[in-house]
Amino acid sequence: MxxxxxxxxxxxxxxxxxxxxxxxxxxxxxxxxxxxxxxxISRRDRDQGRIPAVVFSQNLLDKDPYNRSLARKxxxxxxxxxxxxxLKSVELPFFYSTTFPLQIRAxxxxxxxxxxxxVLPIKIHRDEETGKILNLVFVWADDGTxxxxxxxxxxxxxxxxxxxxxxxxxxKIRASLRYLCPAEHIPQKIEVDxxxxxxxxxxxxxxxxxxxxxxxxxxxxxxxxxxxVATNFENAQCKSV
Length: 241
Fold this sequence. Notes:
mainly beta; five-stranded mixed β-sheet; Ribosomal_uL5_bac-type; 5S rRNA binding; ribosomal protein
């Protein structure tokens, strides 16, 4: 019977309550409004080196129509060169757990600022054949706003893991955890240190400690994140030798 790992306070790397919110300095995304939508207009924007985008409040996606809000919905275009540079600096999947400053200006190169704030990317639409970015979707991420975010899991300490040294393998059951996060406390990633795990040890959702303001959006917190599994019968016997 597999042993569940205990004492994960020393295994899962988290930010303590006294540490400041996760802050990353990236270029401010520059955008200009677009008044109309449609394939012809979007194609023209792309031909001009721009990517159509939309930003809105996340509760617009709520299944309950009474909780939806159309406030601050904006149709925009962004600069393709800048978006490609940002994606080179903040690779997927961390792009979707990183907030960025956004400035909406009256026109390309204009000094007139129409609106600004922080945004969280939630979707990149690409051409299925070429992989070219077709459009972007953002939600507003102002301080105090609560957002549902899929935070990527990063496993570290693999070179020191006893179970892996014995010939076991790391079964990565989940790639991310979904949290309800205040926008100012969105972690870019969750690091799970496996350096103390032996064959049969399992890390569960409930074992991960995060900022107290984060709420795990799972009905079953005992679901596993990862497990060190034996690769053959001999490895399964290692813990009893």
